[in-house]
Amino acid sequence: MAAAAAALAPPFRLxxxxxxxxxxxxxEDPGLPDVDLSLVRDGRLFSRTWPLVVDxxxxxxxxxxxxxxxxxxxxxxxxxxxxxxxSSGPWAGRFEEAGLVAGAMTMTGIQDLRLTWTPDERRWWxxxxxxxxxxxxxxxxxxxxxxxxxxxxxxxxxxxxxxxxALATPA
Length: 171
Prior knowledge:
The chain has 171 residues and is of the alpha+beta class.
């Protein structure tokens, strides 16, 4: 995680002393949210992969009910898009128009990208899980760190900027 945090500096800097499970990065750019980096164990049986998770929270408008949007990448035909319940269509469009999906598609190894809305707190939560910056076990007790390549850093910054931009757009 420390290598991933270093790849994001600048425009991010460490907010507090990193723990063994989470690193908090503050943004020096008003167009970027603060983020938390962590590793999460892949849930597949016998997997030794620990994907990098990037979490960001932002306040802004949203639908009247809790909702969740997820990046959908069709295997054969169609374009990647955010999907969710039928009532979330305008909100998915807002994030797509801001460039969130386009930014995500420049990254390699995205396993999951979700946006979750909590109306009581008026907050959106972005959670991106990727193999870029992951820790991959090669044998019991040994692993290799996958670096965040320049395209991954650029894509992640585009996703985060789009997240902030979509929240700043009036409802």
